[in-house]
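Protein modeling request. Please complete all fields; requests missing the sequence field cannot be processed.
Requester role: graduate student
Desired output: 3D structure, token encoding
Chains: 1
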Amino acid sequence: MPAGERLTELAALPTTPGYAHAVAVTGKLAFISGQVAVDAAGCVVGVDDLAAQTRQALSNLHHVIRRFGADWSDVVKFTWFVLDASEVQTIRDVRDEILRPALGEVHNPASTLVQVAALFGPDFLVEVEAVVAIPDEASDV
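Delivered output (141 residues):
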């Protein structure tokens, strides 16, 4: 697996609330475009429900990641775009609900969360993009 060391503790920085300060990788990377809460038909899932939208966006992201032969443990960086950063705990709770079974006790990937004035559709509350380290056995993708 190319996603290696996860830097989670530094004397000069506070402990992170469930993510790594940095993740070292080797090999091939995939940069996954932002995913939002749409189903296969393009319909918005979870209007006015941040938890439902986060689940759907992560599900869509997971479909892309799996296409590269990777999984959650290979994600090295998330970037979150949200309309209301005060709702970050909802995103963290859903993220952990989905990632904990795959990561176990390993820290979550490096992460950035940015509050934005709007996303590309009026019903969207969250968008998530990722950087993924492609596993060596999937290097022909």
